[in-house]
């Protein structure tokens, strides 16, 4: 047995050892041992999640520092136009989405989310080395593409790791803490980059060196500090060892006792696409798709604000920093709220905040107040939707398909949002910015109650095995 | 618990030791990376400080701004880097008069100068500034992104193009914002993207359209570029500030620039083979009467600038040096393409001819 325990060291051991307390169908009352400690542990975000947050923080500092100055670098240092840069950006949007599902799928098949994520993070770190030597636009373009592929690969396995490390009861909060750290990096990166350029006007290489350093530390933190969680194996162990511990027959009407060791090495229940046929999963993807179709890029909100008043124009480069700051502050509380009120409910009603942001951008009152309100609402919208979607998905589907399911849900959202931005662009030119925003806000205010009805009564809350009935 | 706890605890101990080793390794890695990054940053800071305070190696003269001249952005390394400067029209490679104004793009008619600049800081912002003949600021307005093109018309109109760039993975690409202001800072056009676009007489509204590179005909009309990747067109359009329309003239014409005699447009022609991801721009000239295009392939390099006419027979444009990309030169090319390009103004960018 010791070999198996060693395969999931550190925090990974926690769910297994605490399993008797957390397994829902337990007919007996909870063991009386250390109930306070158990509750405290359940309320705390596991250190693996915090470490993964730090990994994302470092990686986002690295990538956003470069992303923020890349257009300037291409124009000022390489003497090319940003039109050329725009080509690069457009090329990779679709590819990134597909890679996401693939990353989740590989992590599910191998039951090694940490190492699949490490490949993704490593790929992005390698592009920073490339940036130190790249001179032409084709070279930079391919590095940008590679970076996005890396991001696509790592996202789903990373979220699967969070789901595996977190207590199912505070999954939303765990994702919230992770997203807060992630967003802090995204906000800090550009500020750091511009601070370097302020001190060293041609400090491009310095930014790339800092970016490389942050990326290397990110990969290092992942490889060295994050335990090699095997979610599928752990689930198998939870189901079987706990029954054994409880002196029950290993299986209830199943045959998994016989090939025990073989099943273990294969990592428990095998991967299957059949999760996509589950009613709840389809419902979730439907809701995510519909709401995504009404989520036009923040770019449009910023442009509308900027078209309306000088305040927003002056601070245009900083609008997204404001949004990110709010997102960062609210991500953990919003995740906690989702754990309490129901993740699907918070995800759906979070889109009402987005409608509020549209209204602020469309309203005929110019000035700082509406601009700031719009940013706060946008940030709150991200806080109540981004991490919550992953929490909701990972609680809903079996462990064996978690990575793929998270990747699929994110891809559905991303593709729907891309379509929304394209469609909204047509509307923007056809009806003008104010009317277009009112229409989008109106459509959202219709869609939100409909989606809320679709997910009513905890329809998207996990079936028994993953959630504590007393929670 | 049961008897199989003992081996499990043994495993825990081993795992614990491994965790400690890994933490130590991470601490070492952090120290190495931090030390390396800080060392590099500090040495670069010192180098930059030294370079910035070093005097620019250029011949300086007075009184050039009072006679016909070419105003430009000086890119000679050193303390004058980025300053607006001028050379005499009859001695382009001669000494320059350097002003105290720092610009990314500059355009001038001798009495009024438009200067687009990046205000660097932890919060980097961008602005357009209008200056009078004594280099005093008369108007400013904020720009939403990186300054790209500036054009001043004799009728007191200022066209600016800024790149509004995506800042995050989730954002879609980039867009340009091109506006026309009066020299007193009042907005004449709003974003030119909002003008009605008429392609071959039909109203079209591609979502991804971008407008840039304005060149003025008179107080009401101008030429510019409208690009839509979804439609696969890069149109030359003729704009009308009163009707608020953009009417397509020809496809495949980018960043036009009207000749002083008003008969031709110099522009960037994309000579890259069809389907290639990046463009290769070659200077070209369009005859407005016959719509005949002459591609000036005497210039083989990739030219990414809004061309300026030195006179009715000569084009000027900026190119970065291969070996020192922060330094650019302004090159001249005969408008009929009969001779190869040569350096007109060394260490310069964004030329603007003042007669």
Automatic annotation (TrEMBL), chain A:
Gene Ontology terms: cellular component: plasma membrane
Organism: Promicromonospora thailandica
Annotated compartments: Cell membrane
Protein's UniProt name: Sugar phosphate permease
InterPro entries: MFS, MFS_dom, MFS_trans_sf
Annotated ranges, domain Major facilitator superfamily (MFS) profile: 48-459
Keyword Transmembrane helix: yes
Transmembrane feature ranges: 65-88, 180-200, 206-226, 284-303, 315-334, 346-366, 372-397, 409-430, 436-455
Alphabetized GO MF terms: transmembrane transporter activity
From TrEMBL, chain B:
Highest rank taxon of the organism: Bacteria
Keywords tagged on the record: Membrane, Transmembrane, Transmembrane helix
Segments passing through the bilayer: 24-42
SUPFAM superfamilies on file: DPP6 N-terminal domain-like
Gene3D superfamilies: TolB, C-terminal domain
Protein name: WD40 repeat protein
Organism: Promicromonospora thailandica
């Amino acid at each position: 047995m010791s070999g198996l325990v060693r395969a999931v060291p550190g925090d990974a051991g926690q769910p297994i050892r605490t399993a008797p307390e957390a397994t829902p169908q337990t007919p007996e009352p909870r063991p009386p041992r250390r109930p306070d400690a158990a509750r405290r542990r359940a309320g705390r975000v596991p250190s693996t999640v915090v470490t993964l947050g730090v990994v994302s923080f470092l990686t986002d500092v690295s990538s956003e520092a470069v992303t923020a100055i890349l257009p300037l670098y291409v124009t000022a240092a390489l003497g090319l136009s940003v039109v050329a840069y725009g080509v690069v950006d457009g090329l990779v949007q679709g590819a990134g989405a597909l890679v996401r599902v693939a990353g989740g799928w590989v992590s599910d098949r191998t039951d090694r989310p940490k190492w699949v994520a490490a490949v993704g993070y490593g790929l992005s770190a390698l592009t920073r080395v490339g940036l130190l030597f790249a001179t032409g636009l084709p070279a930079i373009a391919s590095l940008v593409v590679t970076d996005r592929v890396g991001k696509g690969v790592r996202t789903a396995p990373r979220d699967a790791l969070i789901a595996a490390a977190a207590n199912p009861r505070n999954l939303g909060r765990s994702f919230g803490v992770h997203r807060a750290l992630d967003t802090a990096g995204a906000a800090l990166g550009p500020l750091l980059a511009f601070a370097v350029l302020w001190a060293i006007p041609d400090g491009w290489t310095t930014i790339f060196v800092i970016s490389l350093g942050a990326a290397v530390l990110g990969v290092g933190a992942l490889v060295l500090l994050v335990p090699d969680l095997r979610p599928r194996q752990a689930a198998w162990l939870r189901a079987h060892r706990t029954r054994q511990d409880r002196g029950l027959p290993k299986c209830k009407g199943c045959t998994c006792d016989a090939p025990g060791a073989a099943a273990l090495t294969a990592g428990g229940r095998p991967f299957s696409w059949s999760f996509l046929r589950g009613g709840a999963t389809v419902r979730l993807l439907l809701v995510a798709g519909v709401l995504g179709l009404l989520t036009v890029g923040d770019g449009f909100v910023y442009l509308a604000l900027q078209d309306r008043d000088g305040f927003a124009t002056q601070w245009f480069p900083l609008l997204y920093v404001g949004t990110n700051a709010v997102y960062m502050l609210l991500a953990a509380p919003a995740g906690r709220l989702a754990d309490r009120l129901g993740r699907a409910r918070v995800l759906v009603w979070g889109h009402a905040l987005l409608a509020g942001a549209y209204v602020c951008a469309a309203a005929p009152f110019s000035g700082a107040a509406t601009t700031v309100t719009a940013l706060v609402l946008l940030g709150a919208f991200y806080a109540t939707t981004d991490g919550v979607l992953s929490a909701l998905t990972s609680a809903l589907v079996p462990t064996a398909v978690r990575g793929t399911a998270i990747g699929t849900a994110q891809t559905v959202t991303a593709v729907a949002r891309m379509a929304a931005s394209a469609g909204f662009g047509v509307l923007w030119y056809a009806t003008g910015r104010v009317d277009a925003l009112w229409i989008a806000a109106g459509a959202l205010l219709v869609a939100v109650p409909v989606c809320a009805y679709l997910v009513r009564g905890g329809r998207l809350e996990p079936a028994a095995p993953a959630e504590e009935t007393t929670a | 618990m049961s008897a199989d706890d003992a081996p499990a605890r043994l495993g825990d101990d081993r795992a614990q030791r491994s965790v400690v080793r890994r933490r130590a390794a991470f601490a070492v890695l952090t120290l190495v990376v931090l030390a390396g990054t800080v060392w590099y940053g500090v040495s670069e800071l010192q180098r930059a400080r030294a370079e910035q305070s070093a005097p620019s190696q250029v011949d300086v003269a007075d009184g050039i701004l009072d006679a016909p001249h070419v105003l430009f952005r000086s890119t000679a390394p050193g303390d004058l880097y980025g300053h607006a400067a001028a050379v005499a029209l009859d001695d382009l490679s001669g000494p320059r008069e350097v002003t105290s104004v720092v610009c990314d793009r500059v355009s001038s008619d001798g009495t009024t100068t438009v200067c687009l600049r990046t205000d660097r800081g932890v919060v980097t912002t961008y602005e357009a500034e209008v200056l009078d003949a004594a280099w005093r600021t008369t108007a400013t307005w904020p720009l939403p992104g990186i300054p790209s093109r500036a054009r001043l018309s004799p009728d007191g109109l200022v066209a600016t193009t800024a790149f509004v760039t995506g800042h995050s993975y989730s954002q879609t690409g980039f867009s340009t914002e091109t506006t026309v202001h009066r020299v007193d800072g009042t907005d004449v056009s709003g974003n030119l993207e909002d003008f009605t676009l008429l392609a071959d007489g039909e109203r079209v509204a591609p979502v991804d359209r971008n407008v840039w590179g304005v060149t003025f005909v008179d107080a009401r009309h101008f030429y510019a570029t409208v690009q839509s990747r979804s439609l696969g067109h890069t149109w030359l359009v003729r704009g009308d500030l009163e009707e608020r329309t953009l009417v397509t003239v020809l496809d495949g014409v980018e960043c036009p620039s009207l000749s002083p005699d008003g008969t031709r447009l110099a522009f960037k022609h994309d000579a890259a083979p069809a389907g290639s991801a990046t463009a290769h721009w070659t200077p070209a000239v369009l005859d407005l009467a016959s719509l005949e295009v002459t591609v000036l392939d005497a210039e083989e390099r990739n030219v990414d600038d809004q061309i300026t006419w030195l006179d009715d027979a000569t084009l000027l444009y900026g190119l970065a040096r291969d070996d020192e990309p922060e330094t650019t030169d302004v090159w001249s090319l005969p408008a009929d393409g009969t001779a190869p390009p040569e350096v007109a103004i060394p260490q310069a960018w964004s030329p603007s001819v003042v007669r």
